[in-house]
Write a structure and sequence with these properties.
The protein is α/β, with parallel strands linked by helices. It has a single domain (11-295), classed as Orthogonal Bundle (Phenylalanine Hydroxylase), CATH 1.10.800.10. 42% of the residues lie in helices and 16% in strands. The structure holds phenylalanine and cobalt (II) ion (CO).
């Protein structure tokens, strides 16, 4: 058995006691997963399979089938990579956990998606504050099979390398884009509003909340609006942004962001729960559809 990768402990910094990870790429220690690890995978997998019917976007559901993931056991990265590499050229790599921004961007820019090798414990089934294997793998991998989304992720990585060189403000703006699309995005499909964000699809509570709760705002995709919008990492989102298609996302993010970053330094950020005059708000239930807040 190969040596088990290990999380580096904690480090006292100005942000408090934070977990520190190695940035190394690690081999998935598949044969050392315990029975409990496979059982928690099974529980999470089966629960989300049910919750996501009629909630996740069609691409997520269709693509997931192509990987033949099952509740039987934690998937092997090598098996998933055979499907993924052939389809879109992406490759999963094992990591210890969150990576420094630049390292993360460089992986994406080279079509490598970092997946945390370890899975949460049973007491964390409903909530875990950091990404684990279930989030990274179940949540992110299916859409990497979609050609447009696969290109978007790479473009984001390249954009990240660039923003990193520009400075901290640019990085804040770009990170919000990732948050409100890749992690918490909604998409309007022919049969209704659906989820594509990985942070949502890997959470039972948020999968229901984001679509069914009257509380959050659901606002039409607007690049600069998103880049100005703050977010919370410790509660359900107060606002979700809705795209019409992955092509829309790709097209809107094609322009060089350098000028946009410069312009945004002149503007206030927007609190997570606010609705603005020009927002298009998506209403569910009777009279489902868009309203322009400026019109009411
Ligand atoms: N167009 C962006 C830039 O110039 C790069 C990017 C593409 C960022 C796609 C995010 C998503 O920085
Ligand atoms: Co994620």
């Amino acid at each position: 058995m190969s040596a088990q990768p290990r999380r580096v402990e904690h480090l006292q910094t100005d942000k408090g006691n934070v977990p520190v990870y190695t940035t190394a790429v690690v081999e998935q220690p598949w044969s050392s997963y315990s029975r409990e690890d496979h059982t928690i995978w099974a529980a999470l997998f089966e629960r989300q399979q049910k919750v996501l019917v009629g909630r996740a976007c069609r691409e997520f559901i269709d693509n997931q089938k192509q990987f033949h993931m099952s509740p039987q056991s934690i998937p092997k990265f090598d098996d998933l990579n055979r499907v993924l590499k052939k389809a879109t050229g992406w490759e999963l790599i094992g990591v210890e956990g969150l990576l420094p921004e630049l390292t993360f961007f460089e992986h994406l820019a080279n079509r490598r998606f970092p997946v945390t090798w370890w899975i949460r414990k049973p007491e964390q089934i409903d909530y875990i504050s950091e990404p684990d294997l279930f989030h990274d793998l179940f949540g992110h991998v299916p859409l990497l099979l979609n050609p447009v989304f696969a290109d978007y992720m790479q473009a984001y990585g390249r954009g990240g390398v660039k923003a990193h060189a520009i400075g901290a403000d640019a990085l804040v703006n770009l990170t919000r884009l990732y948050w409100y699309t890749v992690e918490f995005g909604l998409i309007k499909q022919d049969d209704g509003l659906r989820i594509y964000g990985s942070g949502i699809v890997s959470s039972k509570g948020e999968s229901i909340h984001c679509l069914e709760s009257p509380a959050p705002n659901r606002i039409g995709f607007d690049l600069q609006r998103i880049m100005r919008t703050r977010y919370r990492i410790d509660t359900y989102q107060k606002t979700y942004f809705v795209i019409d298609s992955f092509e829309q996302l790709m097209n809107a993010t094609q322009p060089d962001f350098t000028a946009i970053y410069a312009e945004l330094t002149q503007q206030e950020s927007i609190p997570a729960g606010n609705v603005l005059q020009n927002d298009f708000v998506y209403n569910r239930g009777s009279g489902e559809g868009w309203t322009n807040v400026g019109d009411v």
